[in-house]
Amino acid sequence: MKIKKCPICEKIREEKEKRLKNLGKKVHLCKNHLKEAFTVNPNILELLEFEDNKECPICTLEKEITYAFQGEVKDLCLYHLRMLRDRIKDEDYEEIVERWKEYEKHLKEMDEQVELILDLLTGCGRIIRK
């Protein structure tokens, strides 16, 4: 069975990497995105601003990408399905249930696709790892 990656997670990861590599001015990052920032750009410390009252631009980017998504909701991870549950049509719901039942079989068998399935369950596909 071919397991598709969540298109929103993929887009978020790509855009975050681009944004973090090309920071040109001082920026505030939340603690959740700080580790990813150091992974992508080790010299980012000189560009960080440590004021708590500012909004993290990476959090804003993630929200914008998620809510601007216009593709097939059937291909989304569980994390993004929950966020966009109001867009799920009844006919898509049945197909989504069947797909997740199939994923459940792979989790029981513990094959090489388990990490991808766990990303689909948790939405961790959007996190930059190196």
Question: How would you describe what is shown here?
Answer:
Helix 1 (7-21) runs antiparallel to helix 3. The chain contains six helices and no strands. The protein has helices spanning 7-21, 31-40, 57-68, 78-83, 90-109, 114-122. The two termini are 26 Å apart. It has one domain. With 130 residues, the chain is mainly alpha-helical.
Question: How would you briefly describe this protein structure?
Answer:
The chain has helices spanning 7-21, 31-40, 57-68, 78-83, 90-109, 114-122. The protein is mainly alpha-helical and 130 residues long. It is elongated.
What is the element layout, followed by pairings?
Layout: H1 7-21, H2 31-40, H3 57-68, H4 78-83, H5 90-109, H6 114-122
Helix pairs in contact: 1-3
How many domains? 1
Overall pLDDT metric: 81
* SSE run: HHHHHH
Structural class determined from secondary elements: mainly alpha
* Gyration radius over CA: 17 Å
Q: Unreliable stretches, pLDDT < 50, 5 or more residues?
A: none
Helix content: 55-70%
- Mass-distribution shape: elongated
Give the strand content. Answer: under 5%
Number of strands: 0
Q: How would you classify the quaternary structure?
A: single chain
Distance between the termini: 26 Å
State the helix count: 6
Name the descriptors.
6 helices, 130 residues, mainly alpha, 55% helix
